[in-house]
Specification:
It contains 16 helices and 19 strands. It is α+β, with helices and mostly antiparallel strands. Strand 4 (112-118) and strand 5 form a beta hairpin. The longest helix is centred in the middle third of the chain and has 22 residues, at 185-206. Bound molecules: flavin mononucleotide.
Length: 506
């Protein structure tokens, strides 16, 4: 059995065994950010368009008035990074405040770390920088253009990376999340990172910057140039940022790794991360396989579906993305109230069809490997039940005519968010097929994609005046039972959407 499948099976939650682990050792909780000590950082704070400035407390500075939209200056870099992963909320706590970031994170542990590689960007020397979110600084780590040559080599001379004046690199620090979630942490690290990528994509579009995402790189080379200890931290995604205009883009967005076979004994995260690396030489390309999507449509096409009427024009959300990111928080409590089918249709469109909504160069998704199901609990205009979301014909196809709130709550580990939501979106995949196509690396791609979609769904729900929260903890086999799909199919992520309890008072 492949390492990815072994890992996924071994990290399923089951009602019989959940909660059997030892309690958390709060004294050893990892810091959710790198504590850089740097005398001469590159300060990005003055460029934020807020009055007063949240980092300095001072009135908005002249730099904050700079309109660098589409340009490669510090203002656009500052805003891009802030809206991707900056601190957007502070909760007083002991021994240190809890910093809430622009992207959500399972358990608020923020295992994703952000680095910037500058090739030629106005106002900043070329080299590698770490991002310090507490001060909104860039911390110079290593200088020199040879780092950029190393980046090109690590990304197999990806044309968009080579042409980019700056690249963001996202990594995952395993222990930050495994401290709490054990072996299942790897799933959440990837999902979290996908949420950050979702923000980068939307913020880049809002700032008129071009973005090219790749998670297909040689791990050994990229980790070496970032000076990462690969037992502790691993690079997960490279985001090439270009100014407006045309830029050569490679036709591929994912490359396959090998398929391995691993026993499920200990060290699961290290094994899967290690077995899903890409080699020094670029692997052969794989077809995108949209053809295979059709058999999924056929598989779930037995009954007529409810057409969603997904808009094909520019989304109004594309003008509000930065505001939505700034104000987003995961909903902590829903009240049992219904939402409209049109709202759900717009949310799904924003999640799954950004390219059709005028949202620019979004990360491309391979719909052929994703299977999305929606539990409708209270949506006006469509009956309660479990539906398959057909991505090509854009309709919801009834699979089960009933769906009890209790059972949805139960499979979300008893979390009321599941039981009180209006709609619950299940992101699933045929993992065996994915591994056959993309090797063990498929596990990364699928979870990153799910996180990207999850971020868009969350923001779209907020823009509808609704609430949303990701759910990373669920009883996997109970989800597949509810959806009527084989247990071998992997449930990757859940997004709950509903009416926030706080809205009751307003
Ligand atoms: C991958 C992922 C999984 C999550 N799982 C849950 C969950 O199971 N239950 C829950 O209440 N919140 C969940 N959340 C939401 C986080 O608790 C929330 O993002 C975090 O507390 C930070 O707060 P914020 O999103 O409001 O900024 C999840 C978020 C992510 C990104």
């Amino acid at each position: 059995m492949s390492t990815a499948i072994t890992y996924h099976q071994a990290t399923k939650y089951h009602p019989e065994t959940i909660g059997q682990h030892a309690g958390l050792d709060w004294s050893s909780q990892p810091l959710p950010y790198k504590d850089y000590d740097c005398p001469e950082p590159v300060s990005l704070a003055p460029f934020l368009p807020f009055d007063p400035n949240p980092f300095t407390g001072a009135p908005a500075s002249n730099e904050a008035l700079v309109d660098d939209t589409g340009g490669i200056g510090l203002a656009s870099l500052s805003r891009l990074i802030f809206f991707a992963y900056g601190i957007t909320g502070v909760v007083p706590a002991q021994p240190r405040p809890l910093y809430l970031r622009a992207a959500p994170s399972a358990g608020g542990l923020y295992p994703a770390e952000l680095y910037v590689l500058i090739r030629s960007w106005n106002g900043i020397a070329s080299g590698l920088y770490g991002y310090d979110p507490r001060h909104h600084h860039l911390v110079p780590l290593w200088g020199g253009l040879e780092l950029l040559d190393a980046l090109d080599a690590a990304c197999y001379n990806n044309a968009a990376v080579h042409a980019a004046p700056a690249c963001l690199v996202l990594s995952g620090l395993f222990q930050r999340s495994s401290w709490r979630y054990g072996d299942r942490a790897y799933r959440r690290i990837l999902l979290d990172t996908g949420h950050v990528i979702g923000n980068v994509a939307l913020a880049a579009h809002a700032l008129a910057l071009r973005l090219h995402l790749t998670a297909a790189f040689c791990d050994e080379r990229l980790n070496a140039l970032l000076r990462l200890d690969s037992q502790v931290e691993g690079a997960l995604a490279v985001l090439a940022i270009n100014a407006g205009g045309s830029c050569e883009r490679p036709a591929w967005s994912c490359l396959p790794s090998s398929v391995n076979a691993t026993q499920s004994d200990g060290q699961l995260i290290e094994r899967l991360h290690g077995d899903s690396v890409l080699p020094l030489e670029r692997p052969a390309l794989i077809a995108r396989g949209e053809d295979q999507a059709d058999d999924l449509e056929i598989r779930y096409g037995k009954r007529g579906g409810v057409a969603l009427g997904i808009p094909s024009t520019r989304s109004p959300l594309s003008d509000q993305a930065l505001t939505a990111i700034l104000h987003r928080r995961s909903t902590r409590e829903f009240r049992r109230a219904s939402i409209a089918l049109e709202q759900l249709a717009r949310i799904l469109a924003y999640g799954y069809y950004p390219e059709r909504l005028g949202l620019g160069d979004q990360a491309s998704l391979d719909h052929s490997l994703i299977m999305t199901f929606v539990a409708i609990l209270a949506v006006d205009g469509i009956a309660t039940g479990v539906y398959y979301f057909a991505p090509h014909s854009q309709e919801l196809r009834l699979i089960k005519a009933e769906c009890a709130r209790d059972s949805v709550q139960f499979l979300c580990l008893g979390q009321e968010l599941g039981g009180n939501a209006a709609a619950v979106i299940f992101h699933t995949t045929d993992l065996a097929r994915a591994v056959k196509r993309q090797g063990e690396r498929a596990y990364r791609y699928l979870h990153l994609d799910a996180g990207i979609i999850g971020e868009r769904l969350d923001l779209a729900a907020l823009a509808e005046g609704l609430g949303a929260s990701g759910i990373g903890g669920f009883f996997d086999d109970h989800v597949t039972d509810l959806l009527g799909i084989p247990k071998e199919q992997a449930v990757v992520y859940i997004t709950t959407i509903g009416v926030p309890a706080a809205a009751a008072a307003s």
